[in-house]
Amino acid sequence: FLLTLTGDKTTLLELSMAATLNAAVALAGYFGAAAIIDHPAIGRRGLQQWGFLLTGSLFVGVGFLYDNLSSAVLVAMYLGSTFFGQLGPNATTFLIPAEIFPTEMRTMCHGIAAASGKIGALLAAILFNYVDDLDMFLLSGYASFAACAVTFWTIPETTGLDLYETDRKWRMILD
Predict the structure, then answer these.
(1) pLDDT the model gives residue 115
(2) CA proximity to 51, closest of 40, 42, 62, 61
(3) Minimal CA–CA distance to 55: which of 174, 140, 171, 175?
(4) DSSP 8-state secondary structure symbol assigned to residue 39
(5) Cα–Cα distance between 57 and 160 in angstroms, integer?
(6) If we measure between CA atoms, which residue out of 34, 37, 31 comes closest to residue 160?
(7) Are 37 and 92 contacting, i.e. CB atoms less than 8 angstroms apart?
(8) Cβ proximity of 34 and 90 under 8 Å
(9) Could you identify which of 26, 135, 138, 141 might form a hypothetical disulfide with 86, taking C-beta atoms 3.0 to 4.6 angstroms apart as the criterion?
(10) How many Cα atoms occupy the beta-carbon half-sphere of 11 within 13 Å?
């Protein structure tokens, strides 16, 4: 992504600096998530949804505006997607599965959720070799929008819930 945004004539040093900046922005996103994830008005589900929505919007924006914006603006948009990706989905996708499954099945279900994410990342890595640069951004954006919709329709909010309460709910469902 960074090489696509900075151009083919980017030196290794410039690319390394951009990658370092990207990592610092990602770290800021994680710290932001840690600060707000337990706030009842935001919560895990809301943080994940908004993260996917904002990240998707920035990726689609880069895809559609690629030829009309300077490299610096495109990199800033990409860094914004990095921040919101870490603030939302990357902070919540490992936390939510650890909280929504009953204790007896938590480890197995969390492993299945993690494996699903790894398979998705593998498919994206393979697919990105066959699409052009703009389509890479657009596909990432559309996938983020789809993930936002899946989060909205399928993920329960667990902020403030005791894990024993979640276990009790699962037992009621099974009964």
Answers:
(1) 92
(2) 42
(3) 140
(4) -
(5) 29
(6) 37
(7) yes
(8) no
(9) 26
(10) 3
